[in-house]
Amino acid sequence: MSENHPASSAAEGDLSPEGDLSHYARYQALKFRRHPHGVLELIMGAKDASGKLSTADHRMHRELADVWRDIDTDAQTRAVVIRGEGKGFSGGGDLGLVQEMADDFDVRARVWREARDLVYNVINCGKPVVSAMHGAAVGAGLVAGLLADISIATPDARIIDGHTRLGVAAGDHAAIVWPLLCGMAKAKYYLLLCETVSGAEAERIGLVSLCVEEEQLLPRAFEIATRLATGSQTAIRWTKYALNNWLRQAGPTFDTSLALEFMGFAGPDVREGVKSLREKRPPAFDTDAPF
């Protein structure tokens, strides 16, 4: 674990001697550890020793979409803790991938399907998921972070849905879950303006389940995951399934938002969004809209 990440004896030691990780052998952008009582730790790893956040490139995006199906069929796993390693929970989308999506229809179509699968696969995964968010929480990782059954953030975590800053509609998970968690007024404020939500504010408005100090983030996440893993599995999984019907009912809203987001990737604003991010300046979007 990076020295930039809050320490946790639960994350570093006391790993379960039972079971291997061959179920996840194909994954390269994600890392896994098994813990006692059937708790699986899913780590979105930093790219280098500096702790720089991994961005959601081709591989990371695809693996984050696929992994929930494998977790669902993993007989050794009863609960999951998802966290980031390094200076934050998750980085934003890889600008190179965004540029490819703007330029290439085939890439855009493939990533659209992965983005759709990521949301629905998290929702339909039968195992309870606990997210532990610190630092920046952006991009594809944030999808899993906020769709987790129990979401935990540190007070200074920075939750950012960056779509409108990039010049595309807020697709991904935003339309399906933000209004349900924090209400339409707050959802519109943060999503339309691309405002950062601190972990403390996210708990206050109901966007996350809990806010805890950084040194307690992983211990609390593993404590909750262990309680979920040692409880009645039928009762917990069936309760999750029933509650997630609220999200399934919002499926058409999500599908519309995702379609509009990916239509935006073919438009001019995303090119200005990418260019302005690379040049570290405010974007100068065209003020005229085609509708």
From TrEMBL:
One of its GO terms (molecular function) is catalytic activity. SUPFAM superfamilies: ClpP/crotonase. InterPro entries: ClpP/crotonase-like_dom_sf, Enoyl-CoA_hyd/isom_CS, Enoyl-CoA_hydra/iso, Enoyl-CoA_hydra_C. It comes from the Bacteria. Belongs to the enoyl-CoA hydratase/isomerase family. This is Enoyl-CoA hydratase. It comes from Bordetella genomosp. 5.
